[in-house]
Records
---
Amino acid sequence: MKIGLPKGRLEGRTLDLLGGNNFVQETRKLTWTVDGQTFIRMRPHQIPPAICHGLLDEGICGSDSLWEFPMRHLLRVMASVPQPGVRMVVAAADPELLSHLPARPLVIGTSYPNLASEVFAGIPHILVEQSGCIEGLCPILVDAIVDIVETGETLRANGLHVLHDMGELSLVRIRKVHPDSFQDVTVVVRHDPSQSLLFQRSLRQQVKAMIQEIKRHDDE
């Protein structure tokens, strides 16, 4: 069995999902075998597609990497460990951005382009893909960001407000839904604008703003 393990900040927490007794961590090797199981260190975002294409039998990654993978419906979560306080959010300098969208498309900065496209489905937008220091892009270069937040201190330091909380992240152990069956590996992302929570929230806020404006004129 081949198991993909995440490199980087998630590496130390993989023991929680591997039942530490059967897992021997080699400090420098990228691949090693224990009790017939081959472990392979990879970047977290590489693990879901490697499983889907049959290169790995199982893998461990953050739920953000799973959310970002367009074919995640072909994978199932076998176990998960919460990451308390670690959340995926939409943030912007303007807390009322969704209630008065600009005439042009929104410019969104993110390391998660597929996820951002789903979140902003139904709202005209342009994606600026950037790794690291996403908060520094807003509002000079982008209108909003889709990013991971832990303490929220960086958001506050850059004057950003959370517009939409997409939920707490977890460390997940995943495998294919049907590992022995043939799967069409063509990536197809389908968006239903009416199902976008952010789109619905934007509509509600725009309607609310219109009602307030009408009341203001009536009072005058």
---
Amino acid sequence: MWVGTFYGGLNYHHPMAPAFGTLVYSAYKNSISDNTVSCIVEDPHTGNLWIGTNDGGLNEYDRKNSHFSVYRANHHNARALQSDNIKCVLPDADGIYIGSHGGGLSYLSARTKQIENYTFPEAVSFSNSCYSLLDGQDGTLWVGSIIGLYRFDKKDRAAIPASSGTRISPAELHPHIRPIPRFGKPDMDWNGRKLVRICQRQTGRMERRHIRRSGSDTGFLHTGRQQSSYLDRLLRRPV
């Protein structure tokens, strides 16, 4: 088990070990680049760990050789990350997608080790931020940004608004899109606080649903004219 910590570096635990081990930053030897870890993903193709940090960029950890490779931001190089504050990573067959605060969406090629950077329409400065990624399994990515929800076309390398060509504004959707889970069909996108949107992948149509708390009902889901149901039941639907 791998655990990312706030100022405590990367922690790991083996079932046969009596306690957690730690991997922390060192200025004198190969190490993780920062002690605040924001995300950890195992690469299904190499078995390496991709580790996003708060102020140290992206780390690739080769577990077999216990070696870190670090990718840092360089604003003078268009082929480098544009932010060291990494929020999410998503490997695919040819590389890895990287979301960062203030650096938008990036893609690191596994073959060339070159980085491509993409910005969101209407984004400026820190609002060009990506906080969550989900593979749409249809050649697109669902991208949660600081200014709304987008779909990224892998072939065209472009981010487009998620809903029928019209950008979902912060007034309609809480702007800080956090991790986007997948629950059956249609997909459910959790966007924080008391609002859930259900999005049909094929049409891009977004349906707005609110959660209301009443007495002991901690998962009450209200869907307007539709019959109310329980959120926990909806979330547990089989994929």
---
Amino acid sequence: MCWGMAYRVDAARTAEVLEILDNRETGGYRRLSVDISLMPAGAANAGSGGVSGVTSGAASAAASAVASNAMPAVTVEGLIYIAEADNANYLGPMSDEEIAFVVRRAQGLSGANREYVLRLHQALVDIGTYDPHVAALVRLLGD
């Protein structure tokens, strides 16, 4: 299971946005169409116990409602980019320390990998999701 954000793209801009994303993900990622579950704003992330999107008192009520299945997730078609083991850039299984070593030195079209990991961690925190692997990398990468 993967937690994150889904973005709705205006149909008139689909080709433009896909061109940008496809260019950004040129490092061997494959675009896939998948079913994604959209949780209501303020719904608790079952993987972290956090709250996604809303931080008001209404968030607790929304989280409780989702937990009791009163507000089910909505399933829609979405696009994701994945890297598979046959990707030329795939380095294979590595320890967190080895990954951090590579991340410190890696740079892509969109910038430094270190900055990407730090921003990814903050984005996950912002939606109430805790990913122990990403958090470990952030600790190893330091400030």
